[in-house]
Design brief:
The chain has a 5-stranded parallel β-sheet, with helices on one face. It has a 4-stranded mixed β-sheet with strand order 6-7-9-8, covered by helices on one side. The protein is about 30% helix and about 20% strand. The two termini are about 25 Å apart. Among the domains are: about 5-165, Rossmann fold, CATH 3.40.50.1000; about 170-245, Ribosomal Protein S5, domain 2 (2-Layer Sandwich), CATH 3.30.230.40. Helix 1 packs parallel to helix 5 (about 155-165), helix 6 runs parallel beside helix 9 and helix 7 (about 230-250) runs parallel beside helix 8 (about 315-325). It has helices at about 35-45, 65-85, 115, 135-140, 155-165, 200-215, 230-250, 315-325, 340-355, and strands at about 5-10, 50-55, 90-95, 125-130, 145-150, 170-175, 180-185, 195, 215-225, 270-280, 280-290, 295-300, 305, 310, 330-335. The longest helix has 20 residues, at about 340-355. The chain is of the alpha/beta class. About 40% of the residues are buried.
Length: about 375
């Protein structure tokens, strides 16, 4: 069975090109491309989207907006885009004024009735991109996703990322009698981690996961630290593991693990192998994003606390993370300095996660048929 077509419905003024103050691109000198639009549209076309331009041009063809004044800049725009491999399946222009109330004018779908009757394209995989609320309303009327660009919206590079990369994101809230936690992750974006748990050293360690794991992470926790640190550390691990699990989805196309080292887990699959030195300390990690929670820890910390964090909670954190994530995780640490040992653990697990969540564009084989 052939896959359904994907269509990107694209506004023109304020979306493909900058919109002047008088809202009419009726002279060549007014024609200015939106920043980043060429590279983004090239990615989108290469991904297989068909393009349909849908634009309101108020009063086009009247003395206030002669056809010839519109046609010159429009043809130049199409030529520029075509020279970069960007072509449109259809170009739909509504000439009416808002006062006329015609359903051909966005957000009405009058110009798109032929597509609404066509079942060969996917509503789920298609989208409308524009700069106004009417574009988002058009998306809702078509039953497709709406994306806003320009001021108050996204840059074109981010539009292309969302359409082509299918970002793996999750937003998890965990509320118990002991803790209130919110975690947000984006596995396909890198950003400075934003962490606040009330435990300074624990914040520092969680930052290592995002920074060295290569994914964006924000975590806020309000916990019963007046009792002790246990609930905060454990529940942060469970919430973060749940967020990573949701962001990975069905885990199709991820690297899952490396090629050579073997972790003796349930099926003894090969695993991501990371050995990371931290001054006199070192940590070794084997990770398999198998969907099966297994945790093995070897090591002994030379003191009971690092900052506000009890060292006994470090392996407990990773056990809880592995259980919520659904991962086989083997962690071994050696050293003389508890601070260095703890940091080596978090950095090594982060590097293993970076390798395991990497997209490979192919389905990782499994004798079970699925992860």
């Amino acid at each position: 069975m052939n896959a359904l077509r994907r269509i990107l419905f694209v506004d023109r003024d304020g979306c493909l090109i900058e919109e002047p103050a008088d809202e009419q691109v009726d002279r060549y000198e007014k024609l200015k491309l939106m920043p980043g639009v060429i590279a983004a549209m090239q990615r989108i076309v290469a991904e297989g989207y068909e393009l349909v331009m849908v634009s309101n041009q108020d009063g086009l063809g009247t003395p206030a907006f002669p056809e010839a004044d519109f046609e010159g800049p429009q043809q130049l725009l199409l030529q520029i885009l075509a020279s970069q491999g960007i072509g449109f399946r259809e170009i739909l222009i509504d000439r009416s004024l808002a006062s006329e109330g015609l359903d051909t004018r966005k957000p009405g779908v009058g110009m798109l009735r032929h597509l609404l009757a066509d079942d060969s394209w996917s509503r789920v995989a298609s989208a409308v991109v524009g700069d106004r609320e009417t574009d988002l309303q058009l998306a809702a009327n078509l039953g497709v996703r709406g994306i806003r660009v320009g001021p108050g919206g996204l840059a074109w590079s981010e539009v292309a990322r969302q359409l082509c990369d299918q970002p793996r994101t999750a937003d998890v809230a965990r509320h118990t009698r002991e803790t209130q936690i919110r975690v947000r992750v984006d596995l396909d974006a890198e950003a400075e981690p934003r962490i606040r748990t009330g435990l300074g050293y624990f914040d520092h360690m969680l930052e290592q996961l995002g920074k060295h794991g290569g994914f964006a992470m924000a975590l806020e926790c309000t916990g019963d630290l007046h009792v002790d640190e246990h609930h905060t550390v454990e529940d942060c691990a469970l919430a973060l593991g749940e967020a990573l699990r949701r962001a990975l989805g069905d885990r199709r196309g991820v690297a899952r693990y490396g090629e050579s080292t073997v972790a003796m887990a349930v099926e003894a699959p090969p695993a991501v192998s990371v050995r990371l030195p931290m001054d006199e300390s070192r940590a070794s990690v084997l990770l398999d994003l198998s969907g099966r929670p297994v945790f093995v820890f070897q090591g002994r910390f030379p003191r009971e606390r690092v900052g506000e964090l009890p060292t006994e909670l470090i392996p407990h954190f990773f056990r809880s993370l592995a259980e919520a994530l659904g991962a086989t995780l083997h962690l071994e640490v050696q050293g003389d300095n508890a601070h260095h040992m703890a940091e080596a653990c978090f950095k090594a697990v982060a590097r293993a996660l970076r390798a395991g969540i990497r997209r490979e564009g192919r389905v990782m084989p499994s004798t079970k048929g699925s992860l």
